[in-house]
Amino acid sequence: MEYDDKLIEDAALALLAAFSSEHGNAWKGFDFEVMNRLHEQGLISDPVNRNKSIWLTEEGLKRGRQVAERLFGGSNETIDVSNSDT
Question: Exposed end of the chain (fewer CB within 10 Å): N or C?
């Protein structure tokens, strides 16, 4: 199955922001290619180093929190992820 790279990047950024410290420090436990693309977009610090964490840039933290709220926010709405083909 092919996945939309942009949606994967948004989800990874949202998770980084959701689990980051107040100032944007987060563990870097995601796919290397995704992390590199987020860095290339200026959303996180360079993930290629010996540190086990990265820093979200101001823009990355803002955008990540917006996406996290959209994806994981505590609303009463539920998303139907069932497959209608089964």
Answer: N
For 2, counting Cβ atoms within 10 Å of its Cβ (0-12 exposed, 13-18 middle, 19+ buried), the class is: exposed
Instruction: Tokens for 22, please give them.
Output: 């107040």
CB 17 within 8 A of CB 43: no
User: Are the CB atoms for 12 and 35 separated by under 8 Å?
Assistant: yes
DSSP states of 27-70 as a string?
A: E--S-HHHHHHHHHTTSB----SS-SEEEB-HHHHHHHHHHHHH
Residue ranges per domain, the chain? 24-72
What is the per-residue pLDDT across 27-41, written as a single tens digit (0 to 9) for each?
888 888 999 999 999
pTM across the whole model: 0.70
